[in-house]
Amino acid sequence: MKPRILILPLAGLLILSAIVWKQQQTYPPTDPRLLRYALQRAPSFEATETTETDRSGFFRLERYLGRQALILVFFDGAAGADESVTLQHLRSHADQIDARGIMVVGVSSALPQQNEKLDFPDSFRFVTDLPPIWEAHRRWNCFDEATEQPIENLFFIDRAGNVTVDDGLPVPLENDASALDRVLGIANH
Q1: Secondary structure of residue 182 in the 3-state scheme
Q2: Residue 31: HSE in the Cβ half-sphere, 13 Å Cα cutoff
Q3: Rg (alpha carbons) of the chain, rounded to whole number
């Protein structure tokens, strides 16, 4: 009988510990430029990715929303991730980004076979948004309908799964190294 009596107080202590831990977590500071916009649940999408077993699979953004902070980098798939200044900057700060529990997701038209050859840290995922549909690009307002070309952009999704929006569309971060460092809380050396 005595062990049953302890279950309720132990459960309460466990819940209290989880609340205290959650309140002590630090999150990257918000870019002051984005404070004028509302926060909204990030629009989800599915894209093709290459898994560690060299088989193509599906990346579902919904799996990560509300679980960890994310950086979405829409880049030129024809030029490749190695030519993206933003991805190179993020790679140079990979240890700091990992320490903050942030995952970087590169989105482009590059084929999974091209992405599997990339030499990026494990916290970087690369997915293929296939033309002519461009589902992810369109949902994130990274597609120019007039020229039918994808647009390079950068977004931050907070740990709660929210992104800044304006008129229902996600607002990109300034694609500038110092602005990105501010948002991520990375100290410049």
Answers
A1: helix
A2: 25
A3: 19
- The CB density around residue 119, as the number of other CB atoms within 10 Å, is 8
pLDDT digit string (tens) for the chain, length 189 residues: 567 777 888 888 888 887 777 666 655 545 555 556 788 999 999 998 866 544 458 899 999 999 999 999 999 988 889 899 999 999 999 998 888 889 999 999 988 888 888 889 888 999 999 888 899 999 999 999 999 899 999 999 999 999 989 888 999 987 677 777 877 776 654
- Tell me the C-alpha distance between 26 and 187, whole Å: 15
Are 102 and 28 a contacting pair, CB within 8 Å? yes
Give the position of tokens 């990979």.
94
What pTM did the predictor assign? Answer: 0.77
Count of positions (residues) in the chain: 189
Nearest one of 148, 155, 114, 118 to 131, comparing CA atoms: 148
Give the Cα separation of 76 and 149 in Å (integer): 10
- Domains identified in the chain and CATH numbers: 28-184 (3.40.30.10)
> Is 116:48 a contact under the CB 8 Å cutoff?
no
| Residues 158, 25 contacting (CB under 8 angstroms) | no
| Contact partners, residue 78, CB within 8 Å, separation at least 6 | 109, 110
